[in-house]
Amino acid sequence: MSPYAAWIESNRLTIAAELDLRARLIEREPELPRISIITPTFNTSAHHLRAMVSSVQAQIYSNWELCIADDASTSQETLQTIRDIASRDARISVTYLPQNLGISEATNAAVRMATGEVIAFIDHDDLITRDCLGEIALYYANNKSADVVYSDDDKINDEGYRYHPQFKPDWSPILLLSFMYMSHLLTVRRKLYNELGGFRSQFDGAQDYDFALRAAEKARHVGHVPRILYHWRATEGSTAVSGDAKPESFEAGRRAVQEALDRRGISARATHPQWAMDAKVGMFSVDFPDSGPKVSIIIPTRNNVKLLESCLTSILGKTTYSNYEILIADDDSDDAESIAYLNYIDTLDNVRVCRIIRKTDGFNFSSIVNQAAEFAAGEYLLLLNNDTAVIDGRWISQMVGYGSMDRVAAVGARLYFEDGSLQHAGIVSGYNEGLVGHAFRGLEPHDWGYMGLVRTAREYSAVTAACMLTPTDLFKQVNGFNIDEFAVAYNDVDYCLRLVGEGYSCIYCPDAELFHFEGKSRSHLDNPAEIIELRKTYRDRSDPWYNRNLSLDNERFEVTTRRLSDNKVHGIRLAAVSHNLNLEGAPNTLFDLIVGLKRRGIINPTVLSPRDGPLRARYEAEGIVVLIIDLPHVGVAAASYERGVAELAQFLTALDVQVVVANTLPMFSLINAANLAGLAAIWCQHESEPWDTYFDGENPTVRAWAYSAFGQAYRVTYVANATRLAWAPVQTRSNAQVIRHGIPAERLNEEVARWSRSKARELLGVKKDELVIILMGTVCRRKGQLDLIEALERLEPAVRHRLRVYIVGHPAESDYAAAIRDGIGRLPLRDQNRVVVTGGVDDMTVYYAAADISVCTSRIESAPRVIVESMAFGLPILTTPVFGIPELVDQDVNALFYPPGDSVALARLITQLSYEPALRARLAAASRPGLNARPGYDDMIQQYASLIQEAAMLKDRPARQAA
């Protein structure tokens, strides 16, 4: 299933969604506007016209009228259809123009019949969704200053196939200068329409574009409903199919942009660039002059003369803008060749070298930029990395042009990697697990990106300071970059977001093209303190210029398959299914999740499990009902399995739950049952074993049921991206996503504080000079504890004699536990008692508190909880880099990696850490900050709350009636 087909399925109008819309309409009923639908017709096919009218008559919202103006159709079929339609519905009014006057005059004639406060433009052969007018009416009711409101749209052919969705940004006036991105559905207050004189005939073919540009200049507020409310009919001769259908519209569109520039007093020329002509699309560029206010280009540098020379040569050799100076902000270069070059360029006419004084310990990019700005004589600052090279000589001209527009805080460039692929086309909030990322990063140079946005100037939340233009006075007014919280990373993002919060905008300028020779692979070595600060400061911010229907999984603006839901209802009846109730990894994680959601009032849960255990008492202490249920066992016959699923579906229906959450892969029968019961389900996968053999123990027919569950679940969640990618072949509905597991901060803090290091070591009988190594977790082959035993055998006696080793965890496989005991027995007799296998323990925290080193030997592991706990206790970590572990820790920052099964490598690392206390201390110091910089428990709760609230709206069966 294509991502958009999956999106359509997830966002269908369900019973729950319709009831929710009706409730919202009732709540705001006194304030809802009457909507007049405006539809010009001309020789419309009867089939298409009747379909359009039927889509209007099917509206959930009833306060509407349809105003049809026929533009002197010559088709008797069209005229008879209009008469027939109007005679059957008093809400439909018709006027017949005596001669063909064109679409603008026909539209104006239809508006003259309108009585509604709001008018909505619907083409004669298009369709609207049943919730369309309701959502539009609610937006106007909830936003009293809204004068123009638009929605998202897609295309539909005569077979009903939907494609090419346009998930648009919120109000983007700069983008509107590039093309009529609002498209359909476009609505406006009738009062404003009349004040502007309606549509203008001289712009026929682009009349709506011209009107939108004029309306934007007068509107108090331009709103956007991020929902597909309109289906644009793709038929032969329609612009939905090709721009060839109406080539004259391109020139009309260009003239509309030029008039807008002239009205606004902007000295620039609107063009229909060659690339747009060749592609036959109505997209436009704005060319600015090569003269204007003075620009101070600030280039921070230290040594690395070749990079600086290349950068400077490209600026001086290619730039067409006439009024600029170059300030080289030298951060204490000490290389002789660099010093000589700096002395040379300091003699050039428009180049100055500024010596920067280090005011803080260590490298502080923000301080360098702020100090350099004090030397600037320009009206604008242009921050530029020294590892860049100009491609298009108009770069400054174009950036200054956009930077001169009203309330523009920053302008960024189109940057390319050395191989020609895209490095930066603006910055989006929310990428990289709630942080930020570069739009369209890695796209090939020929790719225009989603909706052609790589080619178009537009608003973004931020732009990179690798090439950023900003007004000098504004930069100084807000004290420039934050030298305290964002000394090295995210200073540009913070600067932009601060100003966006004050009502300014940041603009991406595609005509400013440069190479940026940074590494293409991402570094994960940003200062954790800066990541923490970014999360803390901007965690609740949503990006208005990135549609919520687009995925945050990557930077390619791909359609998400999640349901868009503003439903924040609480008390959702939920069945949570745990494969057992033991005090171990996956059941503990589900417990933390369900309790957290219940305490926040999101859910009213019932816990189901086929096996009882000690977690039951903990659930019940939280007021959560636990039911022990029978599930089909592994290897059951197909007929028995199908009966069992049917019984489970009936059971779920009787429970009257709205959503099912099933934890771990063996619970696939609950996904099958939820699907049969018409319930949305969320499936939490912890396992990382190979997908193609995982269900081999099942009957072949039952195995097919298991794999079908991946397509039946609303979402399948993973704790690591590596596991999600490994299981990609079964993800047939693009419904997989990563949600990191988190442990409640208050519990982590209590556990860390429970034991002092000295008390814990005293309890365990550890001597002062001994190094404690812990290996935590269930003892089994998957966890690979034998690696540590074999590594101990390989250690020099002097190292081994200093160690105290604890293997802590329930023995899940008796033969493997016996192999560990045998391995310990091969150690020299005096060292055998240095290795303690504890079995299951009630309090693991005493071992973490006593430890000097934490080891993880796992072969197959998505995201081991013991890694999180080790980081919480501030321990250096030796681990295998399997699956999601490298997503939790950073190599050579707080962890060292060894290949699974390579006991020689593990022994070498243990030896290194035993002899290098400074290295141990450095790794340990980075562990807790590294944990805090990653998504945590609150993020997990928030993400699952959103999924559950979305899933609740997918319920397609009415609630069970009380007896």
Q: Could you name the key traits of this structure?
A:
about 950 residues; 9-stranded mixed beta sheet; single chain; 36 strands; alpha/beta; disordered C terminus; 10-stranded mixed beta sheet
Low-confidence parts: 959-963
In what range is the share of β-strand residues?
Answer: 15-25%
N- and C-termini, Cα separation: 41 Å
Mean pLDDT: 94
Q: Treating each run of at least 4 consecutive H or I residues as one helix, how many helices?
A: 37
Report the structural category. alpha/beta
Radius of gyration: 32 Å
Identify the overall geometry: flat
The tally of strands reads 36
Biggest sheet details:
10 strands, mixed
Helix content: 25-40%
In short:
This protein has 963 residues and is an alpha/beta fold. The protein has 37 helices and 36 strands.
Report on this structure.
- By secondary structure, the protein is α/β, with parallel strands linked by helices.
- Helix content is 38%, strand content 20%.
- It has 37 helices and 36 strands.
- Strands 12, 13, 14, 15, 16, 17, 18, 21, 22 and 23 form a 10-stranded mixed β-sheet that branches. Strands 1, 2, 3, 4, 5, 6, 7, 8 and 9 form a 9-stranded mixed β-sheet that branches. Strands 26-25-24-27-28-29-30 form a 7-stranded parallel β-sheet, with helices on both faces.
- Helix 20 links the parallel strand 24 and strand 25.
- The longest helix is centred in the last third of the chain and has 18 residues.
